[in-house]
Amino acid sequence: MYYNYWFVFSKACEYGIKATIFIAINSYDGRRVSPKEISKEIDSPTAFTAKILQDLVRHHIIKSVKGAYGGFEIDKDTISKIKLAQIVNAIDGDQIYKGCGLGLQSCNEAHPCPVHDKFKLVRDDLKFMLEHTSLEELALNITSGASFLKI
Amino acid sequence: MYYNYWFVFSKACEYGIKATIFIAINSYDGRRVSPKEISKEIDSPTAFTAKILQDLVRHHIIKSVKGAYGGFEIDKDTISKIKLAQIVNAIDGDQIYKGCGLGLQSCNEAHPCPVHDKFKLVRDDLKFMLEHTSLEELALNITSGASFLKI
DNA sequence: AGTATTTCGGATATATATATCCTATTTATG
DNA sequence: CATAAATAGGATATATATATCCGAAATACT
């Protein structure tokens, strides 16, 4: 019928993940970056991206410095400790781990939706992956040219 | 930041899956069902559900019979052959298998996004599950009381 | 044939996510 | 202290998904 596609993450979250990776890369070099630079690099709308950055700041995933020579950065030594799950959680919440695949309000072991068990496996895989993927490895794969932030 | 949650499927698709299961159950008893009955049973908006049913008809997943004593049904002997993947494909398209986790336009092995490989595993799991789950087993789990269509 | 019943499908309305704009606030520097 | 450069955040606009409405078409029965 429809337009829709796979929405593991919202657009906001996609931008948030890519932005955080780009900030990490620059923080290794002690460089702060602006929403303008970020959105150019990750191919996202600037103002919208700026909103998401604010949110990541509120969740203490990235740091912002106001005023001249300011910008966004991440403490070098926390980059290896930040997991993808934290970023996703900050922006899209934790329903990714809890929500029912068929939208039931209270879907659980005792009262499962038709696909509950089958989804559990997929969801647990996703959860494990998000919790075990570090920002550091994502950033290093970009700098090494093994992966890309846009196109 | 936001309102969002895990969107494996669109609402339309959630309704479509649940509706199809309910139609299957009734078709075993040779009973046709209306959008009204369906939406009551799966707790969905009637008119919107009706649209989705039309779409499933166009994709030959369910059959409709117009006029008095009409309604929706599924050929008994096709119920075991219909896979969850077909329903999802009809409503949400095939981007679920193709779309990039970070929204890149052309994300592939040669030009991967930062999470490409990690997502591949999750996605393949989901794909396998959808392609190997039959409408029959979903329907039987409802009739046996092992799973539920609402609440 | 007429009527009640039912799906079909276009038009429209509502809700939510995405995106933009503009001003206030903060801060480094001359 | 003034100025320029930056983030913060409220208000608003746009796009998309979700939901509703209503008349047209089809069909079984009387």
UniProtKB/TrEMBL annotation, chains A, B:
InterPro entries: Tscrpt_reg_Rrf2 (IPR000944), WH-like_DNA-bd_sf (IPR036388), WH_DNA-bd_sf (IPR036390). This is BadM/Rrf2 family transcriptional regulator. PROSITE patterns: HTH_RRF2_2. It comes from the Bacteria. It holds the Pfam family Rrf2. GO terms for cellular component: cytosol. GO terms for molecular function: DNA-binding transcription factor activity.
